[in-house]
Amino acid sequence: MVKLLKKIKAHIRLIVQVGFTAITNSYINGYVEGNIFKGPSKAVCVPGLNCYSCPGALGSCPIGSLQAVLGSRNYKFAFYVLGFLMIVGALCGRLVCGWLCPFGLIQDLLYKIPFIKKLKKLPGDKVLKWLKYVILVVFVLLLPMFAVDIIGQGKPWFCEYICPSGTLSAGVPLVLLNENIRSIIGWLYAWKLLILGIIILLSILVYRPFCRYLCPLGGIYGLFNPISLYRYKVDAAKCTKCGKCQKVCNMDIKVYETPNSIECIRCGACKKACPHKAIQNNSVYKKCSGCEKDDR
Known about the structure:
The chain is mainly alpha-helical and 296 residues long. It has 17 helices and two strands.
């Protein structure tokens, strides 16, 4: 029993990832019938990228929902979706990316594929990591609002032209399961497959390339990392700046300097690796007299 509990504790993040993905994509009939769930829960957002059109999805992706409302000719401001993003971000920041996002789970599993030399980061990482914010502003916000058709209706540009999560969880299954959809696929489907294929290959070589460089949802949550209720603290009295936290960090963050970096997905690897237990989350951190002035 003790060994079992230790194994569960050692793999708790993976268990939560798999469990949350299974729960939020549990509409089995969608895969049987080649269709999507249309019940009332589709009006509710889930925290991570979870395509509305996935045959098993019971909820909606906040990025897709945001674009849908911004692009509507009837509504110009998405109060519910923005409120949802702000609440989730304020509570836990990019913890969502590390623990609750289905596409994050896919990238984690791909990175575990052995026999290939892994890269810590892609060339040009310092510039590429800002690309997700360009995508957020241009494809998620501006284009749906201003690139509209003759009746003033915009479209979900990010979902339609970029998002590999939607291609994997929705596009591919629906094309395979639904004959009517197969008859109308064209160049756009091929383009999305190309993006998905590139992301899959990169995910084997580099840890979470989509999260690092392209995901606008992760970009939003990352902005909340320094102020979220769940955040990291480094006890300056214990930290020796040995660098072990950065060594185990797949996002290559100097945790001892910036424990609440906007790139951190809160996987917890740094906390486990710290030999001095200097890294704690905000809810359990206790100030000591020697580190009150250097409370990071």
